[in-house]
Amino acid sequence: MQLNRIHHVAIIVSQYERAREFYVEKLGFEILRENYRPEKGDYKLDLRLGDCELEIFGVTDPPRRVTNPEACGLRHLAFRVENVEETVKELNALGIETEPIRVDPFTGGRMTFFRDPDGLPLELHE
Fold it and tell me: Per DSSP, what are the bridge partners of residue 103?
């Protein structure tokens, strides 16, 4: 077996329009497809960042995360950036709070976390 790369990551959001604005308008993801699925009563938004896709499912009243971020399942989504400090400044200018920048003890790279509108932890990593 040869797995080539990750094709996509899927997340469920509680407020579709708020999540769409966050990922598209603030973070700069490109919209590939946007569909309402009447049989499921939800929205499915396919986004692209580089060569990876992010699927957003807008579901009415999804269950909340059990703990943060230690629940079984997706712990966080990480983005590689050239300069964490500059990216933090850009996020902060958009009203997105970030944690203090720190150094990953295993890679030596600078990193920090911020959250999407539903509280999903997102990481920036050099």
Answer: 110
pLDDT band at 62 (very low <50, low <70, confident <90, very high): confident
Tell me how crowded residue 47 is: count the other CB atoms within 10 A of its CB: 22
Q: Which CATH number, 3.40.50.2000, 3.40.50.11030, 3.10.180.10, 3.40.1050.10, labels domain 65-126?
A: 3.10.180.10
Residue that has been written with the tokens 């692209």 in this structure: 48
23-51 confidence digits (pLDDT tens):
999 999 999 999 999 998 899 999 999 99
In terms of DSSP bridges, do strands 102-103 and 110-115 run parallel, antiparallel, or are they unpaired? antiparallel
Considering only CA atoms, which of 107, 87, 109 is closest in space to residue 98? Answer: 87
pLDDT at 65 over 90: no
Residues of the chain with CATH 3.10.180.10: 1-63, 65-126
Give the span between the Cα atoms of 7 and 10, in whole angstroms: 10
